[in-house]
Amino acid sequence: MNNKDIRLKNWPFDIRARVKLEWIGAPFRYEKKMVLPVYFNGKVNGYYTTEKLIVDWNVLASLRIQHYYVDGIITKPIAPNQTEEIIITINSNHVGYFEQNYSIRGTNYTEISQTFVIKYNGERFYLPLIEVLRGVIAPNAFLLNCLFEMNSFPLYFTEEYESDLLRLRFTSLYNAKYLKNEYLHHLVWLLMNKNARKVYENMASNFHFNNTIKFEWPFETPIKLKLRVKKTATGYTVLYINAMLDKELQVSNLDITHPSLVHHEKSNEPRKRIVLPLSASGDYEADTTVDRRTNEFDEVITDTLTHEYVDTLVITRQKTTSTKQRDGIDDNTKKTVKGDNNSRSMGDIGGTNILRGLEVKSLNNTYVNGELADFKEVLNELSRAYFVDSVEAYIGELTDIGGRSFAFVDDGITPRKYIVGYVKLRNGKEVAMLEVERAGRSVSTLIITPIDGSNVKWYIEPLLKYIIFSSGSWLKEGLAKWEKSLAILK
Q1: Non-local CB neighbours of 251 within 8 Å, separated by 6+ positions
Q2: Is 372:437 a contact under the CB 8 Å cutoff?
Q3: What element of type H or E holds 155?
Q4: Residue 16 burial by CB count (10 A; 0-12/13-18/19+): exposed, middle or buried?
Q5: What is the DSSP track for 230-276?
Q6: pLDDT per residue over 422-479, tens digit each?
Q7: CA 490 to CA 444: how far, in whole Å?
Q8: Confidence label for 483 from pLDDT (cuts 50, 70 and 90)
């Protein structure tokens, strides 16, 4: 993160005022992505008021109820007075679920309070349901981002089990930064804890049909948590989960593969291209109006949240291929300067978005030439067909998705463009047509339609990432992972 803080854009409170986070509301879908309503109380023009701010879903990782924030910096929460840290063991027989309407103090807003009430050593602990998601089930950005994507795991990896061994074969869609041990440990725990996994994998469909994140307590066996709590007249309010302790893994060995796990052969040969970042000074701004997501926000600072295990997991990283790593730069190295205004979306888009946060433009007023112009005419003709209800078409650049060589045309500088057309037929079916600028390459048009009732738009970014990784080839073996969900023609 370059030691930069993350601050919320359009912070309405006075400069240097201590602002209390009163409440975290229920998530909802806004502008193609998941967001949260968050209620803060503090001084505006010298007078205390409560303001409702809409933040990206992923901001949840840095939010602490009843904590204080200054100047919108969410990475530096200030703990309230008279709190304490307590370790408790939670038995499922001593957990109840309580739900009621909650009026936000100082406003006309009403939210639903969803709380697990836990009995331990003669005391009651009030644990917010959303904190169980953040602190136990999905404690990192990858899992938070995928939570509202239906059937998301097969897009990122396949699983194979052998007695005391789990094999995970990660695809290029899985960010290599999540191959760190702490992420892999929790992923293994989640995959093999059937109840927690069921909660996670059912979240997207439950939210889609019921517009809620309600779920039952997911643990049959006792779990141990380290909590930051505040005493009340009736028990303890859990402000946040600080750690999950004594987690048990059901395997001792993990074997993984990933496209980034390759043998590098050092070379002094000059690099073909280099991207030079032009960074702006100051803190990052978390902006819900920004669709694009960047690597800086893939790992949100989560204070002291830790997970500890009683088992030892031996992780074997299988390196498959060999590649030459060029370290030199000369006059022939193509240089691209990439600007940065520090404006970020903290959330992955997910769900029924168009290209999950990529910057795309309508084709109506966009000039294209070559095969893309021909494809545009095909879409125009389709829009007039009697069996077609509507056609949407958008253009984008592959460099917004990945930086490998195929993302550029042959000069190594100009981004390679693509067009995606969404065709809605009169019988209700949806078809997506994907055309990538060829510029000297032989790339066939890809046509897809869901066979499992899912939204066709979910698959566009993964497919674009795949065509970049495969250097412009729609290989049958590479497309096989989508065959259960899509009918594919090329």
Answers
A1: 161, 164, 165, 166, 188, 192, 313
A2: yes
A3: helix 153-156
A4: exposed
A5: EE-SSSEEEEEEEEEEEE--S-SEEEEE-TT--EEEEEEEEPSEEEE
A6: 888 887 888 999 988 876 666 778 999 988 777 888 888 889 888 888 888 888 888 8
A7: 6
A8: confident
* Token pair belonging to 303: 């204070």
Note the pLDDT tens digit of each residue in 300-347. 454 458 899 998 999 999 987 555 555 555 555 554 444 455 555 544
DSSP state of 75: T
Domain ranges of the chain: 6-314, 354-489
3-state secondary structure 120-145: ECCEEEEEEHHHHHHHHHCCCHHHHH
Cross-strand pairs, 49: 42
Cα maximum dimension of the chain: 74
Cα–Cα distance measured from residue 125 to residue 144, given in angstroms and rounded to the nearest whole number: 25
Do strands 273-278 and 334-339 pair parallel, antiparallel, or not at all (unpaired)?
Answer: parallel
**Residues 141, 60: Cα–Cα separation, whole Å:** 10
Rounded to two decimals, what is the model's pTM? 0.67
Backbone angles phi, psi at 62, to 5 degrees: -110, 5
C-alpha distances out from residue 219 to 43, 91, 99, 198, Å: 42, 8, 19, 11
Q: Which residue, chain included where needed, has tokens 């032009």?
A: 278
Do 343 and 296 contact (CB within 8 A), yes or no? no
pLDDT above 50 for 298: no
